[in-house]
Amino acid sequence: MLSEHIQSGDYIIVRADPSPQPGEIVVAWVEELEGCVCKKLTRSNRLVSDNNWSHKLTDSDRIYGAMVAVVRITSKLYRHA
Asked: Which of these, 29, 37, 39, lies nearest to 61 by C-alpha position?
């Protein structure tokens, strides 16, 4: 989700919310994929991403919550003895 400034290796902070608002980025279990995704929720109850991927939520899918923050670790602290 590069347009949302989420990069590989980033951590996201998620607010538990089974009913997020359209336009929010959510973490959801997609039964068809047998895995979790982090995608934007649309008004038509679809999950979408930058690369034109789209999925209509079904009764077997589950939204865990909405993203509230992105954490990126840019450097490691090294201690010299």
From this structure: 29
